What does this fold into?
Amino acid sequence: MSTTTNGTSTVPAEAERIRHILVSRQDTPQRPGAVSASLTYGWRALLKIKHVPEQLFDVTIFPIMMTVMMTYVFGGSIGAAVSGQEAGGDAVGAYVQWLIPGIFAQTLVMITMYTGLTLNRDISKGVFDRFRSLPVWRPAQLVGALLGDQVRYTLAGVIILVVGFIMGFRPAGGLPGVLAAFLMLLVFSFCLSWVWTTVALLMRTEQAAMGVSMFIMMPLTFVSNIFAPTESMPGPVRAFAEANPVSTLVGCIREFMDGVYDIGSITAVLIYCAVLVVIFGPISMFVYNRKS
Amino acid sequence: MTLRSDDLAVETRGLVKRFGETTAVDGVDLSIRRGGIYGVLGPNGAGKTTVIRMLATLLRLDGGQAHVLGHDVRSEPAAVRGKIALTGQFASLDEDLTGLENLVLLGRLQGFAARAARSRGQELLEAFGLGDAAGRQVKKYSGGMRRRLDIAGSLLVTPELIFLDEPTTGIDPRSRNQVWDIIRTLVDAGTTVVLTTQYLEEADQLADRLAVIDHGRVIAEGTPGQLKAQVGAGALNVRVVEAEDRERAAEILAAALSADVVREADPTALTARLDAGARASTALTALEEAGVEVETFSVGQPSLDEVFMALTGRKPEPDGDVAGDEQEAAADGGDHGTAGRAVDDEAEARTR
It folds into this structure.
């Protein structure tokens, strides 16, 4: 028969090595727990940043652009209304104090959208088949991706704050206030990301996921108190803006940065966070488990 | 029939999977013994991958039952995942990461501590001849290297059962032989291998038992030898000295063997089906008597190619229990003379 005639001369050594590693591994390790598995997937996300640093474009250039653009385009006019000063240079200065915390929140909230887009691309690759065939807590794959994104959000946040500082932002709450605001924003971003994982898993293509995400994102960030006080808006819009979780978040962040720690605001944001995870986490997993 | 007998690695009954209107898997029954290599052979779109993905708990069953290593894939998917490994059709690797990082990732997900995962990964890379490429991104690997790494990724913890979905599709012959050797080594070490392939030669080379799948159904099952025997024929390959003699030779062979003769791409080569009872020697004598000079001839067992053509050359009958109804398929097969190219794995003789 013609079997096993190919390359027989080199085979035994390799076969022996392979047989050796198969038998040398008798003690199967304990399966990893949910936390350990999530962290491992988070580590994967960091490795991807290391190997493909271009993917940081959206968390570096975009925040700078947003901060500079929004402040100087709207600063003069909205700043005058917000601060009660004459339109122009002083108004911009006053507006920076008010706007930077908002831009900080808005930019990070917008960046969370990329989590879903990356997942949509990632999940169509063969490696996800392998992940899904492992005896691992399944949500770890999504949780890990979101944990890895915390690094991206942190980078973006630092950039915004530095640019803001250069532009004259001086938070009254000092470093503790800024750190508290940062932490709160990261928690909110993590929770909001489950909306985008749901969208990403439901949509077949990245473009479709992008379209739906933008559709949600625009009102969420613009119909809020980020750029202007909600009091200035007409009835229904104002109602939407005040019910918008992003407004609640931005309100809380402004307080932190002013050195105000209000239990009511903190609780309100955390409730929104919990609601987002409780609704969109299970939906994401439901869709994920049925994804073919 | 016992549904959970211990010596079976895989047992399915009436497996069904639908995607919208199309029924990708339409009542597949499989009984795969532990140990050995089981081949699932079929053309593109036959439903092979869908079957594998259902068995690996990646797809939900729309009907029927499946037990893998004694566990129901529906009710105990975690238990199944703990014992199997899957190497998907498209490299199940993270292209952006290096070879070592991929293995460390998979090792940690299997529960190895960071350092142990690293040393286990390195050990596997060395064994698979990828030691030098450990620090290189997988996207820079060749097809063969990817495949080997892919299989290594399934072996961090030695699985009881490994699913290989088209393990050699799209790689060069040398890499293919390496992958075959790896697969044989796995089996020697006691792992059960279930592989899908659309290469008949691969099934013939590796599998000790196989199922032929077409349109989501098992149309034949058995050892490669049994399947060939069912077709009940071999092939006579003849190469004439002068290309202009070929036409005449074809007519003589067709008459002597009362079978179809295939003109190969080589202008001097012919392949004729040998139906049961046909005598190759008679045909060769007829050629000699007609004065056709024969360069070489060989008698081959029917290739799996031919088996496949014989089994699927007709429309599969939708009625009746198609799976396992080998007799009928074989009986029909003999009448369809659309022979593929035979593999000359039997006697080859030179006449001059």
